[in-house]
Amino acid sequence: MIHHVVGLFTHPDQEWKEIRGDQEESISHMYLTHTLILAAIPAVSAFIGTTQVGWVIGSRAPVMLTVESAIWMTVMSYLAMLGGVAVMGAFIHWMARTYDANPSLARCVAFATYTATPLFIGGLAALYPHMWLGMIVGTAAICYTVYLLYVGLPTFMNIPSDEGFLFSSSVLAVGLVVLVAIMAFTVIVWGLGVGPVYTN
């Protein structure tokens, strides 16, 4: 599974065809071989960045999180990413019937995982939590993720490109709703007293 990651960055059109032709795997195998590994990249990077490097604001000393606080936030963000991929895969599976495509739920989760790969890889920027670096890498990762979505969905679902555009737009809209829901959940959890704790 991981070998497709390089192909998605170097030749996405061809790679989506290869992914579509791959033998179908179970959701658990997909999560174990790909999703769990890739989703750990931003979570672990953020843990290291927030506890070892910290944010520098102006000429002040770096602001860092306590290890206990960072562990809790790392686990929660990791679970949110895994849940987000599952929700997006389930939505793609549900929506595919509208476009006369009949992929399995496992293939839809695989598609959601592969599409989110640039976001996972872009999480490496969290090793050095700097505002401009995060904005540049985050924007590039989002743009490439959207590109993979619009290029890959028609190929992966084997549907015409005009239907693929509408399907991709629907998936993108739901992705934004999932993002807002995760952010709202974060605010609720922080309101319960499980927010960040700073070292200084």
How would you describe what is shown here?
This is Yip1 domain-containing protein. Keywords: Membrane, Transmembrane, Transmembrane helix. Residues 7-182 form the Yip1 domain. The chain crosses the membrane at residues 36-58, 70-92, 104-126, 132-153, 165-192. This protein has helices at 3-10, 12-21, 27-53, 67-96, 105-122, 131-157, 161-191. With 200 residues, it is mainly alpha-helical. The longest helix has 31 residues, at 161-191. The protein is elongated.
Summarize the structure.
This protein is mainly α. The chain has one domain.
Characteristic terms for this protein:
mainly alpha, 7 helices, 0% strand, elongated
Helix content: over 70%
Indicate how many domains the architecture comprises: 1
Distance between the termini: 43 Å
* Element order: H for helix, E for strand: HHHHHHH
| Mean pLDDT level | 91
Bin the strand percentage.
under 5%
